[in-house]
Amino acid sequence: MQRNILDLSKIKNKIREIKGKGIDITINRGRKKIDSYEGVIENIYQSVFTVKILNDKLLKNLTCSYSEVLCGDVKISVR
To answer: What is the pTM of this model?
Structure first.
């Protein structure tokens, strides 16, 4: 099976397109620990982007790098 090949510039453009929209984000932290959140991409910087988590109990921001998305450690889907 062929995998879609993306580079960092394509990932940055896709994240710019979904800024402000609701997303589901899944983060693989290793050793069978996977965290899933609902949130909104809040800010976009040169090498990272921030996600505001939308949860009643949990009010925090996540910072993710574009290379984590490229490697597959961070997966984003639009709601």
So the answer is: 0.84
